[in-house]
Amino acid sequence: MGYPEGLLKTRAVIKPGQYAVIPPQGRVKNVIPNIEGCDMSIIASPKMGASFVQYIGTAHPGGGTVKPFADDNNIESFIFLLDPEGEMEVVLNGSQYILKPCGYAYSSPDSNLSFINRTEKPVRFLLYKQRYIPFEEKRPHDVVGNINEIDEQIYDDMENVFVRDLLPTDLSFDMNMHTLSFLPSGCHPFVETHVQEHGAYIYEGEGIYLLGEEWIQVEKEDFIFFGPFVQQAVYATGRGRLTYIYSKDCNRDPEI
User: Fold this and answer.
1) Segment holding 131, helix H or strand E
2) Which of 43, 238, 230, 37 is nearest to 126 (CA)?
3) pLDDT-derived band of residue 250, with 50, 70 and 90 as boundaries?
4) Which residue would you say has higher pLDDT here, 191 or 5?
5) By three-state DSSP, how is residue 128 classified?
6) Cα separation of 2 and 235, whole Å?
7) pLDDT digits (tens, 9 = 90+) for 131-157
């Protein structure tokens, strides 16, 4: 990497337990047991105050899992292919799938996830895991899809904001993944304040995000963590769409 030019600086903003913005500059590579041939960065974990763990990775040719990921009891996981080119082989509980760009796979708590890059070029991906919260006798199932095959829905009666649900919304699932897209000048209909946590990865565009009482500029490749009850809203400020993929815990009554 070599010597820096000028003073060291960062756009990262970290408020443990509340919110965080982590740009690509400054991320470090982490060693993740049983994942080889991949550059992995941990961008959210309980050490930040999150109830989940999220990574961004680059799988080099031949890189991937050497043992199933998140194979512990009652752990669910999710993988999303970021790059506009390339593919990833994914195995869910013994069944093999090929993820194309914008493809994803959800591994239920009764399943496990393996992945490998069998192409000749590196491919980038998001990886996520959390502990499943059971509800009665209901259990979720594995899901494989591609966001390009899901119709966008108008968000809260705003014709310049669009949402996609990547997972089923029934009570078997205690989490979901969504995409949210804003056309230029699009925004949230109100400042949200809610119990759900989010981990959001911006994969196109730019905007200015309200986190707590602070307006923060964000752009493509930034990761944002939203803790419970933090104030949040965004304006899209670029010439094109602002789009991010984000996690949400849902469908459960908080324990006391």
Assistant:
1) strand 123-131
2) 43
3) very high
4) 191
5) strand
6) 37
7) 999 999 999 999 999 999 999 999 999
Neighbouring residues of 3: CB distance < 8 A, sequence distance ≥ 6: none
Amino acid (one-letter) located at 84:
P
Position 178 scores a pLDDT of 98
Across the range 8-16, mean pLDDT stands at 95
Residue of 183, 185, 184, 179 whose CA lies nearest to 202? 179
Alpha carbons 78 and 203: distance in angstroms, whole number: 17
Q: Phi and psi dihedrals of 39, rounded to 5?
A: -90, 115
Position 73 confidence tier, pLDDT thresholds 50, 70, 90: confident
